[in-house]
Write a structure and sequence with these properties.
seven-stranded antiparallel beta sheet, binds arginine, binds glutamic acid
């Protein structure tokens, strides 16, 4: 027995050592394929990525640049999160057609709703162009020269790359500029809304449950890709037809159980896994707290006002979600970094690194990197915080300040290029209309009063009575006439007068200083990455997320966040009903769903225990951008939809710990249950391919 325990211990350690990391799909041969197999996968590297045959990657697309989606039918139906489709759902919503509150279901193609500006992008192929890109780079070049040679070379490569007329190419840097890959892509721009559950399902638990397990959110929405007569990308047209994909994902009705292999395939945005300890300290001790405070001050007002008025709720829904999401994430991140002793662990790792440098005779070449980081960060920290605080106030939270900032950019642009007046006018008109579509001067004034003092400025609320910007027509009038006229009117406006010195300071001092210091740190980070790979060549390096297609794998697993507490890997519909608070804005449950639960009318969407699974956990290493990513089983069938991480593990962007970092997925059976039993959209179920791989 004892031996078995010891053996099990080693197997577990060994398996957890193989998890974490976001891998490049075209390079899975070898180590990744082996690791996946040992975790239970039946897939080959070629099943996942193949240039000549259709493969899993052909079913995965970048959703509007910030989320992931996947094709689930031969007619271009795609699935993503409710929170990824949120702003589209919101923009079709009104007091009469409150799709946020009631959900939306197209029962036929002609009921599907077009979305201006929304796009999805597929990866056609991936090519290593490192040699070409770095061919003309020498060690004695300055950082600026290096960057400009790299930009020039990569523009040349992209220009000459063979592709179809409807395809694009882009080059991205990996391992902090140690490697470069070119992507051939196809971007579809006619994407229509097909279905969304009510917010009380799609955002069930709202901010209280966000970033937290146990979770019971049906965070999904459905869109459809339309293409031209040749099945190629096209702008919106009523003549477009549903897209025929190269591959679509079958959906498994057998689901998952604890210990099953799990893989998430999507477009993670940004991670920083190779930061020095001093940087983690700066972010968690100084940078995050100031930004958390600004967002908290704004949310205090927005949350209160949204509860008071449906009109404000609809206007501010998307904005509120954006502000609240990172606010809560940063809090979790700080907590996780502290609890896991990440800074101390990183320091210990740095000692190992320094020792390895000595052993390999690399101290002269790389030995000063860590002390350089220390002094650079000391210098960088205040300006980094100041710049970000400006962004939080002038772009993220307060819209009057945002309008003055856009007006400032307008003034700069027409002063530098007077011949561009008409174009600049069109630009600012669009911006102002966009902001005013979801603007409430009373709410914004409350935000203003709360956030300005955190930026070190006195907030004079009388500005809201004396500025033209709070009323769209008045704001647009400023921008009528010739340049001289406009600049005169603008500089007489109370809000503009108030904001201009702050924007001037940002523009002329804070931002340039930040850019210059950031460049130096980035260059050192590149050198550090090179040094790490040279000094410790056998470690398991994966490139930081950079919004390119990645594979991450692990297993379905619960976790223990603290002593004597263990979270099961799977949550059920019973938990939705347990959390139900009648009429609550976060935990209300629609009558229809309660009826289905009472009647146990679950159809085929149940686990072996007869219950409807709602969410489940995995050890997949994910980040923002992975929202909407398909969670696949050992055979490449769709079993879940990634949408979040657990509270204790949100620090995985800087420090991934397989013991505690978990991604949260909606179980596809819950998605199907809602579409079929709740919404009665059997037209959509009929398009899909439902399979039973385990039987
Ligand atoms: N935390 C998840 C993500 O980072 C989900 C956000 C949507 N949910 C919400 N309550 N705001 O995007
Ligand atoms: N909800 C996040 C999203 O956008 C994914 C969760 C995460 O950050 O892990 O993209």
């Amino acid at each position: 027995m004892k031996y078995i325990k010891i053996l099990l211990f080693f197997i577990t350690i060994n398996l957890s050592a193989q998890q974490g990391g976001m891998w490049i799909p075209s390079l899975l041969n070898g180590m990744n394929e082996d690791e996946m197999t040992s975790l239970g996968s039946k897939l080959t590297a070629k099943d996942i990525y193949d240039v000549n045959n259709s493969s899993l990657k052909d079913a995965v697309c970048h959703f509007n640049g910030g989320c992931t989606s996947e094709v689930i039918s031969p007619q271009g139906l795609i699935l993503t999160n409710h929170h990824c489709g949120f702003s589209s759902i919101q923009s079709h919503s009104s007091l009469e057609n409150d799709y946020l509150k009631n959900g939306f279901w197209a029962m036929s193609l002609d009921e599907e709703l077009p979305n201006d500006g929304l796009y999805v992008e597929f990866i056609v192929s991936i090519h290593d162009v490192t040699k070409e890109i770095l061919a003309n780079i020498t060690d004695d070049m300055t950082e600026k020269d290096k960057q400009s040679v790299i930009t020039k070379t990569s523009n040349g490569i992209m220009k000459n790359w063979t592709r179809e007329p409807w395809q694009d190419v882009k080059i991205k840097s990996f391992y902090k500029g140690n490697q470069y890959f070119l992507f051939v892509t196809e971007r579809f721009e006619d994407i229509r809304l097909v279905g969304a559950p009510p917010t009380s399902i799609g955002k069930f638990g709202s901010d209280t449950d966000n970033w937290v397990f146990p979770r019971h959110t049906g965070d999904f929405s459905i869109f459809r890709i339309y293409a031209d007569a040749n099945n190629h990308p096209a702008k919106f047209s009523k003549y477009n037809k549903p897209y025929t994909p190269k591959h679509f994902l079958p959906i498994s009705l057998d689901g998952i159980e604890e210990g099953d292999f799990s893989m998430v395939f999507g477009f993670p945005g940004t991670t920083n896994e190779y930061l020095p300890a001093v940087a983690i300290e700066h972010i968690t001790k100084n940078y995050n707290p100031t930004n958390i405070a600004i967002r908290e001050a704004a949310l205090k007002v927005i949350d209160t006002e949204m509860k008071k008025s449906d009109a404000v709720r609809i206007k501010y829904a998307s904005k509120q979600a954006r502000i609240a999401n990172a606010w809560k994430k940063w809090k979790g991140e700080n907590l996780g970094i502290e609890k896991s002793n990440a800074v101390e662990k990183r320091r210990a790792f740095e000692e190992t690194f320094t020792k390895a440098l000595k052993e390999k005779g690399l101290t002269d070449k790389y030995g000063s990197i860590l002390t350089e980081f220390d002094s650079l960060y000391k210098d960088f920290a205040p300006i980094d915080i100041k710049r970000r605080n400006f962004i939080e106030v002038f772009i993220t939270t307060n819209e009057l300040m945002q309008m003055t900032y856009r007006a400032y950019q307008f003034e700069q642009a027409i002063t530098a290029n007077p011949e561009n007046l008409e174009k600049a006018k069109a630009g600012i008109t669009n911006t102002l209309k966009g902001i005013h579509k979801d603007f409430d001067a009373g709410v914004d004034k409350g935000v203003f009063i709360n956030v300005m003092p955190l930026y070190g400025k006195h907030a004079d609320p009388s500005i809201y009575n004396n500025t033209a910007f709070t009323n769209l027509d008045n704001a647009l009038k400023i921008f009528e006439g010739d340049a001289k006229d406009i600049i005169k009117k603008l500089n007489k406006d109370a809000a503009y007068q108030y904001a201009k010195p702050m924007i001037d300071e940002f523009n002329n001092t804070t931002n340039p200083e930040y850019q210059q210091k950031n460049e130096t740190i980035t260059a050192l980070q590149t050198k550090y990455m090179t040094a790490l790979m040279e000094a410790l060549p056998n470690a398991r390096y994966f490139p930081d997320a950079n919004s390119t297609l990645r594979v991450t794998y692990g297993q379905v697993r619960g976790y223990s966040p603290r002593d004597a507490v263990y979270y099961n890997a799977i949550s059920y519909l019973d938990g939705v009903i347990e959390k139900y608070i009648p009429g609550d804005y976060e935990f209300d449950v629609p009558q229809k769903l309660r009826d289905l639960y009472a009647a146990k009318d679950y159809g085929q969407y149940v686990d072996k225990n007869g219950k409807v699974p709602v969410c489940f956990l995995g050890t997949n290493h994910t980040t923002g951008g992975n929202s909407g990513s398909p969670a696949l089983d050992a055979y490449g069938n769709l079993v879940g939809l990634n949408f979040d991480r657990v509270w204790e593990g949100t620090m995985s962007d800087m420090y991934y710990d397989p013991e505690i970092c978990r991604n949260i997925m909606v179980d596809l059976r819950y998605v199907l249950f809602i579409i079929d039993k709740y919404a009665g959209a059997t037209n959509l179920i009929n398009e899909m391919t439902l399979v039973h791989p385990k039987k």
